[in-house]
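Customer ticket, subject: "Can you confirm the structure for PROP1-like PPR domain-containing protein?"

Message body: Hello, I'm evaluating your service for our small team and ran a test protein. I'd like someone to confirm that this is what the system normally returns, since I don't have a reference to compare against.
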Amino acid sequence: MLNAYIRRGDLPGAEEHLEAAIAGGLKPSVVVYTSVIDALAKAGNAEKAVAWFERALSDGVSPTIRTFNAVAKVFARKGDKQSVMRLFSNARDAGVTPDDVTHLAFIDVNANSGNVKGVLAYLDRMRRNRAMPNVYHYASALKGCAKSRADMSATAWGLVQRMLEEGVRPNTIVYNMAIKACVIGRPQTSEAAEYLFRHMLDSGVVPDRHTKIYLGNVVGPSRLQELAESLGVPLEPQFLPAAGRAGTAV
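Agent reply: Thanks for trying us out. I re-ran your input and got the following:
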């Protein structure tokens, strides 16, 4: 019954159902608590997710790593590094072993604030602990480069190279974040963005709308059109220079 509420997105109904079960003398399992916490976290309801996590603890439920991860994602999205660290300190004390999602939360909390130094340090920490980063960890790390106000184009390319060395295949999001790092960094680095775009195509990774937006923001509409034509990449009318759009309309 609880899962039915969650599947249709009726989170208030799920909470009421759980409250009624507890009031009726039932003791929900950690799986039940985690399902509600995770659903609330994914819906962006941080306060209620944390409240149910604390309720589970007060009811004597031992959280699993999935429970800790659900709450950690809430704090990571807010860039609340101290809360993430405190949460997983509690997890370690409880004998709960971190997994890939845990590592992603630590990278995310640094990436969301543009703390590239923290991102790189945590990736190194993972490797020292023989937990090899996957494509999601790298995508988040590159998001940190994209959020930095400094020129992170060299760092972004270095992360892509490290992925390849470790046998992790970059995807569209990885390249998009790397190119976006060239957009946001000051000064904008058009050569690096073009190089990443060419490497993306050479690697067989298909660019999407965001790729073209980020690349166009660095090199400009005219150069984007030149690159697209020379490399055989379809370019939708909205990405063409004004004259090109007018010609298309005719």
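A couple of notes from the result: The radius of gyration is 22 Å. Residues 135-240 form one domain. Feel free to reply with more questions.
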